[in-house]
User: Which sequence fits this backbone?
């Protein structure tokens, strides 16, 4: 099976490394220092137990033309970067190619095959010019929800932090042959994987945490467990989650966990830096629209007040503007 990982960061590299080790024909498309490191030393994957698994025999490239048509394209770039690569993705497509989306937050395709009054609606916050929709047909898309945490320790070195579950789902919640085939490949690679018949409910369950914990961590520079243990930030997360639950409810979404249980799950992850905090410390643009902005867009669509989410969004958006315009990063360092 031919699989191309577009964006071999923490999650993309994690998926690609294990799929390649299990015998799948995996190629990686990336750029910058990450690609330079891959070409020089291959991909070094480190399990949460500290075992190192080098991958040197895969194709690492920055040129889509080097790869050719694939069975599956794992789209693992950050949500705000999809527009940049969307026009090149068709180079990887044949008539049967599936695009597996593993971004955090609300996806750009959320209302495709949704049904109801919002069916087919394009999310302005995620695809303002329609470039993504134009180049990735909804028929190709398989939704994927990553219940795992990983980190890029340095260019070319990817470390598993926690979890290894990647659940899949069709946009119409059907059980398809292509999902079953990919699920089998993931399980053979050592992942846990389930086919979802309630894809959007699971998207909201995951987004419930990321839309609150990620911006709070970016603003406070605190780890997950610290946010959950500190009374004021725990209460802030609870208020944000309560507003999101009301917004999702307007779309017919119900949550299978309570807010308290969702926060407890995040606390159990321990001293983990969220992806947004990692981006702040590295000076990268934040994945803010998919995690928070899209939630607010849906709040406006459904006429649902969300004052706490709006406040945190505004502060985080200014933070992002401040350090990216200064071409800087913000990282805690000891005094003296």
Assistant:
């Amino acid at each position: 099976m031919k699989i191309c990982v577009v964006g071999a960061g923490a999650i993309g590299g994690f998926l690609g490394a294990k799929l390649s080790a299990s015998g799948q024909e995996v190629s990686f498309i990336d750029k910058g220092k990450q690609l330079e490191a891959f070409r020089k030393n291959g991909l070094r994957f480190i399990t949460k137990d500290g075992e190192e698994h080098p991958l040197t025999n895969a194709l690492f490239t920055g040129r889509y033309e080097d790869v050719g048509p694939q069975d599956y394209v794992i789209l693992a770039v950050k949500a705000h970067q999809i527009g940049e690569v969307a026009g090149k993705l068709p180079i990887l497509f044949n008539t049967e190619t599936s695009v597996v989306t593993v971004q955090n937050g609300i996806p750009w395709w959320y209302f495709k095959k949704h049904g109801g009054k919002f069916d087919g609606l394009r999310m302005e916050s995620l695809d303002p010019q329609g470039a993504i929709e134009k180049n990735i047909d909804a028929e190709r898309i398989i939704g994927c929800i990553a219940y795992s945490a990983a980190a890029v320790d340095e260019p070319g070195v990817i470390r598993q932090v926690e979890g290894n579950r990647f659940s899949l789902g069709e946009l119409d919640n059907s059980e398809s042959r292509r999902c079953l085939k990919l699920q089998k490949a993931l399980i053979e690679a050592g992942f846990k994987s389930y086919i979802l018949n309630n894809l959007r409910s699971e998207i909201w369950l995951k987004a419930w945490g990321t839309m609150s914990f990620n911006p709070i961590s970016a603003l406070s520079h605190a780890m997950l467990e610290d946010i959950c243990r500190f009374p004021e930030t725990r209460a802030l997360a609870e208020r944000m989650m309560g507003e999101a639950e009301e917004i999702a409810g307007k779309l017919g979404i119900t949550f299978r966990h309570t807010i308290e249980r969702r926060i407890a799950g995040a606390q159990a992850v321990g001293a983990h830096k969220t992806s947004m905090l990692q981006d702040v410390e590295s000076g990268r643009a934040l994945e803010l629209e998919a995690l928070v902005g899209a939630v607010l867009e849906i709040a406006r669509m459904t006429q649902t007040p969300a004052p706490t989410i709006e406040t945190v969004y505004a502060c985080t958006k200014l933070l992002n503007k401040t350090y990216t315009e200064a071409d800087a990063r913000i990282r805690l360092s000891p005094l003296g």
